[in-house]
Specification:
Blueprint: E1 3-7, E2 10-13, E3 18-25, E4 33-39, E5 46-51, E6 57-59, E7 67-72, E8 77-82, E9 91-99, E10 102-105, E11 109-114
Parallel strand pairs: 2-11
Antiparallel strand pairs: 1-3, 3-8, 4-5, 4-9, 5-6, 7-8, 9-10, 9-11
């Protein structure tokens, strides 16, 4: 059974920082590309950042220079360091694991940034 469990969300003031974690089980973690997506109320889910099995990263333009995605294969965990948070970053953040036709999602963690 595949599980992706996010943690680290919460309420923070604008300009603050949070670090999200996503612990994976039931997959060979190092084989998978991992990603963070977010969905704000009334909006579609959007890509935030991804990291391939080889460590290549990709970011949405809106978070470049502020967010950093990383992975620890020994811990089967992917992280999202979020700095200089803005109210528009408020959303539910979801962890994703992808390899070929296999695609898994976590349950999401709420991030709220107050102005």
């Amino acid at each position: 059974q595949v599980q992706l469990v996010e943690s680290g969300g919460g309420l923070v003031q604008a300009g603050g920082s949070l670090r999200l974690s996503c612990a994976a089980s039931g997959i060979i973690f190092s084989w998978y590309s991992m990603g963070w997506y977010r969905q704000a109320p009334g909006k579609q889910r959007e890509l935030v950042a991804t990291i391939t099995s080889g460590g290549n990263t990709n970011y949405a333009d809106s978070v470049k220079g502020r967010f950093t995605i990383s992975r620890d294969n020994a811990k089967s965990t992917v992280y999202l360091q979020m700095n200089n948070l803005r109210p528009e970053d408020t959303a539910v953040y979801y962890c994703n694991a992808q390899r070929r036709s296999r695609d898994f999602w976590g349950q999401g963690t709420q991030v709220t940034v107050s102005s």
